[in-house]
Amino acid sequence: MNATMETHTTNDVSPGNTPRLLVQSLAKTYGSGPKAVEVIEDLTFSVHAGELVCIVGPSGVGKTTLLKCLAGLQPSSGGTMAIDGRKVSGPPAEMALVFQDYSRSLMPWLTVEKNLQLPLRHLRLPAREMRSRVEDALGEVGLSHAAKRYPWQLSGGMQQRAAIARALAYRPEILIMDEPFASVDAQTRFELEDLCLKIRDELGMTILLVTHDIDEAVYLSDRIVAIGHKPARVLEVMDVVLPSPRNQIDTRALPEFSAQRTKVLSLIRQAQA
Amino acid sequence: MKRHAFNLALAVATPLLLVVVWYGTSSSSTNAFFPPLRQILSRFADLWLFEHFTSDILPSLGNLVVGFVSAVVLGVALGFVLATVPLLRAMFEPSLHLLRGIPPVALVPILITLVGFGNEMRISSIMIAAVFPTMIATIDGIRAVDSGLKDVCTVYQLSKRDRLLSVYLPSAGPQIAAGMQVSLLVAFIVMIASEMMGTAQGIGAMTLLAQQTFMAADMWAGILLLGLIGFLSNLLFDLIKNRVLSWYIGSKKMEKVS
Amino acid sequence: MNPSSSALASRPENEAPERRRARDYDSPVARIALRAAGAGILLACWQLTAVNGVFGPGLPTLGATGGKLATLMGDPGFWIATAQTIWLAVLGLAISLVAGVLLGMLIGTIESVFYATRAVTEFLKPIPPIVVLPLCVMIWGPTNTMALVLVMIGTVLSTTIQVIAGVNDTDPVAMNTARSFGMGRMERLWRITLPSAASYIGTSVRIGAPAALIIVVVAGLLGGAPGLGSAIYRAQAAGDYPGVYALVLVLGVLGLAAQNLTAAIERRVLHWHPAFRKVEK
Q: Looking at the domain B37-257, which fold is it?
């Protein structure tokens, strides 16, 4: 991992520091004049280095629009975004995105390995470095054996692992995930959630994950940013205090877990009513 | 299993049977249009295997290959530019559709008026006629590149070159290949047509000459040769295509299974 | 639908920065202006080349071609040739279509026939009708019949292959549903198989219409059959170069019309098919 990431572990997150990602008053309106549709009114939140933050909101609240603005796929209509205190405009090089639909984000004509190499090419890395990054990333997600296979020869869960590995090999400052587990079955979903926690713990990666699944958000997050209303705004930012390491059976059985999820759920319900 | 073997036998036996029946029933034919197959085959060997191989077959095939290859290169290049520059597309696409509507063979008399009856005319007719299917398929293919893949390009900040060579072209590959296959057929048609209009050289010219002089067996030999070239060139193209697009064929198979 | 996704659906050009620029060319006025500008540039190139005399008399000026086009419009012979060309293409295609549907249903529904004919159709598929043009001219001479036969030869196989594919694509669930209602073999063929193959038949018409037109022109140009093809041949042989260009332009318009017309008919007739349904987002 690169130097910045090695210095951070999950423990040295102190809220007083400059956040890794700071989003202030982000707004998005489609079109103009009487036909304008305001999707995001005002979103402000921050993600600190090594944190895993989930943005939770009901379907259709504008989560995907938010991500597209963050990733520079769409211009925002207002507000600012800063990475480590530096303002960013356009697609930030420090970011990698894992899309919901793995079948549309992996190139079907490239093997898994080549898919991982593609974004690395313009970084002009030495061949050895490139190879080791790809190998490391595949090892991290448990796909070393599938390097030479094509994405469509793999199961859905394995394809999403490959997409995550592609993001890891890129060594971003921030990993953004858009409903990354929405297209896989429940069992695979648990596996991928744990993979996510493992990446955060082992690599100290900063992760911003968007989901509509409240259980998933509670299980994964250090903090939850609940958004709601139309147009979207932040309902509440809450810390999730659950013992570490988390695991699918025990963590989900804790009373704190259900208390937390009840809180988020009622918050979102209220906003919808 | 037994049924499968029966079907396979049927698939192999029927064409053989047809040839045998043709050979048998035509053996004593005196019909001016349908000479005995034996005679056609012997004329085929006489004409094409030795005498006219270098003087007619090679030039014909050379024109076909040169015309087709340059049409494909030009078609993909132009199609790519038109698909990626919205201003050019808005300006020239309607005109292109009008040009595409012109029957390819009608370009032959135009090219004759421009450059005469020489080899340049044949190659340029083949090229101009064959450029359209590939170009239009390229435009459509690149426009249809999945928005998910485009997002990946933006997020990972791929260079222009990587976008073109590693994402856009492979993604449009299946469609471009389909366009190229049509281009190949058009090139073959125009090759024959360019030889049938006012020249004495080439397979098409010889076949038409045989018809005009009522040499039925020679004409059939020409038809046989042209048919074989049409079939084999398409077969060759299929083989190469299946090689290059193996990822596509594989992924389609997976889609069907699931 | 929620506001965010409906906004996305109604404004897809917002999805990627490169697409947003396309919007500037999307207003009707801009579209027409740009098309006119594009056509104007192409025509100007033509005119400049012609005036400079790069190709000598072989490339007539716009004025000469336009004048010839105007003369043709007033010439009954031209209209007869055009009508003949269209009629031969339409008639040939119609016969092919009927024959192709019958053959395709026969081959597609009976397995042994399918296998028996497979090698022959696969061999003949990539061979264009121009290959047998000398034979047809030898038998029928430079006549309408020759052109008609050539159109039929050129379009019947592709229609048949499309119909076979359509028959094979019949949904087994639909078939079993029909069987459970006690439909007989012929009734199933008529009520299930044929509609299932409809989109494939549509495709074969859309491909076949321009092809039929091209074949009629080829039959005229190379085989002397009456119609626009032989008109071009005569103009070229007589050194009437503006005439060649005018006629070729007419063919371009006809070809474009054939493509658009068949596509429109296909959309109309097959409005229920998934490929043509208007998706409500």
A: MetI-like fold (1.10.3720)
- Rounded mean pLDDT of B155-170? 86
Which of A68, A70, A109, A134 should one mutate to test binding to chain B, selecting the residue with the greatest count of B CBs within 10 A?
A109
As a whole number, mean pLDDT of residues A141-148 equals 90
- What is the topology classification, in CATH, of domain A20-94+175-180+206-273? Rossmann fold (3.40.50)
- The Cα of C12 is separated from the nearest Cα of chain A by a number of Å equal to 10
Q: DSSP states of A147-201 as a string?
A: TTS-GGGS-HHHHHHHHHHHHHHT--SEEEEESTTTTS-HHHHHHHHHHHHHHHH
Instruction: Using an 8 Å CB-CB cutoff, list chain B residues near A99.
Output: 148, 151-152
Interaxial angle between packed helices B107-115 and C241-269, expressed in degrees from 0 to 180 and rounded to the nearest 10? 150
pLDDT at A14 over 70: no
Please list, in sequence order, all residues whose beta carbon lies within 8 angstroms of the beta carbon of residue B78, skipping any fewer than 6 positions away.
B131, B135, B138
B254 vs A contacts (CB less than 8 Å): 152-153
Q: For residue C275, what pLDDT band results from cuts at 50, 70 and 90?
A: low
Whether this model's pTM surpasses 0.90:
no
- Tokens for A103, please give them: 């079948």
Q: From the CB of residue B78, how many other CB atoms can be counted at a distance below 10 Å?
A: 20
CATH number where C206 lies: 1.10.3720.10
Residue B143 has which token pair?
A: 């426009």
Domain membership of residue C14 as a residue range? 3-59
